[in-house]
Amino acid sequence: MEQPRKAVVVTGFGPFGEHTVNASWIAVQKGLPSPWGRKAGEGTGKFQAARCRRELEKLGLGDSVDLHVYEIPVEYQTVQRLIPALWEKHSPQLVVHVGVSGMATAVTLEKCGHNKGYKGLDNCRFCPGSHCCVEDGPESIDSIIDMDAVCERVTTLGLDVSVTISQDAGRYLCDFTYYTSLYQSHGRSAFVHVPPLGKPYNADQLGRALRAIIEEMLDLLEQSEGKINCCHEH
């Protein structure tokens, strides 16, 4: 019997501030098949879906994965609407959010998202009046994915990109998106920060690293499938 394909959602961010070209969205487009890359809310036809599955086999994610890629605007209110909608629409096995950090010099795996401290204005000159993601939500939520293990596994692959771990996604739209997704998914989300393009990695290097990270995350999730339901409850 053919096994049902597992949905995986990957997001990158649009331009903001000095990042007129957002390295996170470029990395997503380079690392994953472009036929699925679209603005949040856009549809995809059957022809594109079939083409995407062929590309996924080449990339190593396999025919068992339904991949959905979205570009997210740097807007708090859009994130609050979009992230729950993506989980409801796709019921994904995994959601991986990718953002750019001007301070990063390595590809960084974020362990957790934070609920409070959001005071920076978004592209609409808006920030939440409460400065938090979820009223009365936990201070922070950890991903169920073992980021230390992912980091170790990707490092052993010998890619020409350094990978590291962080517990502070920055209290801006990256952290806000991550917490919102972790809260929605009971921890079944991940966040990857990439440096700006050329500082020091080019788009192809970031794309390869991102693809390898997602592959390792999926492998770890499959290995721990029997434990996931009891790992995180809120």
From TrEMBL:
Keywords: Cytoplasm, Hydrolase, Protease, Thiol protease. It catalyses: Release of an N-terminal pyroglutamyl group from a polypeptide, the second amino acid generally not being Pro. It holds the Pfam family Peptidase_C15. InterPro entries: Peptidase_C15 (IPR000816), Peptidase_C15-like (IPR016125), Peptidase_C15-like_sf (IPR036440), PGPEP1_Cys_AS (IPR033694), PGPEP1_Glu_AS (IPR033693). Its main location: cytoplasm. Its EC number is 3.4.19.3. It comes from the Eukaryota. It is found in: Cytoplasm. The active site is at E110, C174. Belongs to the peptidase C15 family. Removes 5-oxoproline from various penultimate amino acid residues except L-proline. This is Pyroglutamyl-peptidase I.
